[in-house]
Specification:
13 strands; mainly beta
Length: 260
């Protein structure tokens, strides 16, 4: 098995110096392609600060690990994960864009909603991997129900190993709400998440208590408000099936005023 480590270094981006693209620096892409073409099992480990575009390298590795900058204990943690001594993987906290994303946006314009959009909240284009994606050595089943006060979820470990799973709750405003306002509205927004550790065959219960903050959007004045109408909530593990519930807010409400 080849553990192929790729990424960028402190000389590629730092304070006052930005990257001009998001591809692998130097000859790394060509080198990776040569290694992958050998036909051996490959685990690709990405060590980087900003997101790296790995177009053309996704389908061949047996696994891809986004390690970011894992600090002084990172090598120890990675070795435990790669050799199966631990099974506590996470979910992507960023969107992994294709390489040509930088040619579609003006890097000096920070309007998040300007097409094709920035971050998972506004981006409408294709992704290499979406925000919140993440796999495990174990497999899990997720079943959720809705009560007036909460979303109740059962997570079952159906895999061969003990491990962790992360369940996320996303808010989506209905089309009627989106049409009724004059400011950008996120396509979706992460409002809650929980991690659960489960042994083989074990089922864990998670409760997501519904609060006004779940329904909040930011208006053109910077106030955090709840708009009257239908709000949707998608509950997901970052891949696989998505369970969707809805809540109808009866009236407009200001949750938090912008006092800045």
């Amino acid at each position: 098995v080849v553990v192929l480590c790729l990424g960028d270094g402190h000389g590629d981006e730092y304070e006052s110096v930005d990257r001009v693209n998001i591809t692998l620096p130097g000859l790394q892409h060509a080198f990776a392609r040569m290694v992958l073409d050998l036909g051996k099992p490959v685990v690709m480990v990405l060590v980087n600060g900003g997101v790296i575009a790995i177009d053309g390298l996704i389908s061949d590795p047996n696994a891809i690990v986004e390690a970011f900058c894992p600090s002084m204990r990172g090598a120890e943690a990675l070795s435990m994960l790669l050799f199966g001594d631990a099974n506590r993987w996470g979910k992507l906290p960023v969107t992994m864009y294709p390489a040509d994303y930088v040619s579609q946006v003006d890097m000096y314009n920070f309007d998040m909603s300007l097409a094709p959009g920035r971050t998972y909240r506004y981006y409408t284009g294709p992704t290499l991997f979406p925000f919140g994606f993440g796999l495990s050595y174990a497999s899990f089943e997720l079943a959720c129900t809705q009560s007036p006060q909460a979303f109740e979820c059962n997570v079952k470990n159906t895999g061969p190993l003990a491990g962790d799973e992360v369940v996320m709750v996303y808010h989506r405003a209905s089309e009627a709400i989106r049409r009724s306002v004059s400011h950008p509205v996120p396509l979706t927004k992460l409002v809650d998440f929980e991690r659960v550790s489960l042994s083989v065959g074990e089922t864990g219960a998670l409760t997501f208590t519904i609060t006004p903050e779940y329904l909040v959007l930011t208006d053109e004045s910077g106030n955090e408000v709840v708009y009257a109408g239908v709000h949707y909530f998608d509950i997901t593990r970052g891949h696989g099936s998505v369970t969707t519930f809805s809540i109808t807010a009866p009236a407009y409400a200001v949750v938090r005023n912008n006092t800045v």
